[in-house]
Amino acid sequence: xxxxxxxxxxxxxxxxxxxxxxxxxxxxxxxxxxxxxxxxxxxxxxxxxxxxxxxxxxxxxxxxxxxxxxxxxxxxxxxxxxxxxxxxxxxxxxxxxxxxxxxxxxxxxxxxxxxxxxxxxxxxxxxxxxxxxxxxxxxxxxxxxxxxxxxxxxxxxxxxxxxxxxxxxxxxxxxxxxxxxxxxxxxxxxxxxxxxxxxxxxxxxxxxxxxxxxxxxxxxxxxxxxxxxxxxxxxxxxx
Length: 239
Known about the structure:
Elements: H1 14-60, H2 66-80, H3 83-96, H4 100-109, H5 112-115, E1 127-135, E2 141-148, E3 154-160, E4 167-174, H6 177-188, E5 196-197, H7 201-207, H8 223-234
Antiparallel strand pairs: 1-2, 1-5, 2-3, 3-4
Helix pairs in contact: 1-2, 1-3, 2-3
C-alpha cells in the first residue's frame, strides 16, 4: 500500500516576509497618525470652549441645580459642538475654580466615561418601577418613559427609528406620565396612543441613546443627562 507523505507547508520568502512587516508597520503608523490628529483636534476644541466654560462657572456659582447646568452645557454645545469636549472644558474650569458643588452636579448628570474625570462618588438616581413605552402607528417613532426618585421625575426619550440608527430627537423630565405622553403625541403626531410596560429589554436597550457625539437640534441641553439616565435604565440591575 502506498504511504502518503505529508505535504510541506509552503514557506514564505524573506522578501515576502519583509514586505508584510513593512505593510503592518505602515498600517500601525497610519493609525497612530490618525489617532494623534483626532486627539489634537479634540484638545483644540476643549481649549476653544474653556473661556466660555469659565464664564459659565462664574454665572452658575456653587448652587446651580441639574437643570441650570444642563442648560449651560446645551448653550456651550450650540456654540462649539463636541459635547464631550464641552463637558471636559466645564469640568476643567470648575476644578480650577475649586467649585466643588458644581463638580458634584456635573458628576450627577454626565455619562460614566466623562464622570470618571471627576473625583467624586455619586449614587445613581433610584429607578422606580418598570419603564413604559409606546409608539406611533407607523412603528417608527417611540416614546420611552422612566420614573426616578423625587418629585416630577418622569424622564421621556422621544426616539425616531426611521433612519439607519435610532435617534433621540427630544428628552427631558415631566411631571407625570400623562403630561409626557401628551407632549410626545403632539411632537410625533401620534394621537390615540397609550403607555405599556416595556417588557423587551433588548429592544429597549437598542432604542436608548449612547454617548456617541451625535446631537439633534432638540436635545443639546439634555445630551449628557439623557445618556446618564439611559445607562441606568440599560444596566443589568434595572432588568
